[in-house]
């Protein structure tokens, strides 16, 4: 899953070891492969209540265009998050530390889904 913050993003160096990679304009998150089933994605302002969810990322995504596009690795658009400022404070939760089947994106600032 890709969170793209600029029109011409730099792809992070994917080392095959970690499960999250970040450049200044993209965050890549390893999720369950599509041949193994669908990945459930939820975008919210609240932390997940399930004790099975693990915090995978806690940080700020800078975006000069005030938009974060969420896409598959095939560049199919899943959703967009429009911000009021040039950054998106975010936490990403998953039900597995390596290849989550359930992902929650917790937006910590004011946002609008597109």
What does this structure look like?
This protein is mainly beta. It has strands at 2-4, 20-22, 26-29, 40-44, 54-62, 67-71, 77-83, 87-94, 102-107, 111-113. The strands form 2 sheets. It has a 6-stranded antiparallel β-sheet, with no helix packed on it. A 4-stranded mixed β-sheet has the order 4-9-8-5, with no helix packed on it. The two termini are 17 Å apart.
Topology, pairings included?
Elements: E1 2-4, E2 20-22, E3 26-29, E4 40-44, E5 54-62, E6 67-71, E7 77-83, E8 87-94, E9 102-107, E10 111-113
Parallel strand pairs: 4-9
Antiparallel strand pairs: 1-3, 1-6, 2-3, 5-8, 6-7, 7-10, 8-9
Structure in a nutshell:
This protein is mainly beta.
Share in β-strands: over 45%
Number of DSSP E strands: 10
Give a quick account of the main beta sheet: strands, pairing sense, barrel closure. 6 strands, antiparallel
Order of helices and strands: EEEEEEEEEE
CA-based shape: globular
Radius of gyration: 13 Å
Low-confidence stretches: none
Q: What is the structural class? A: mainly beta
* Helical residues, percent: under 10%
Residue-averaged pLDDT, rounded? 94
For the record, give the distance between the C-alpha atoms at the N and C termini, rounded to a whole number.
17 Å
Major β-sheet strand ordering: 2-3-1-6-7-10
Q: Count the helices. How many?
A: 0
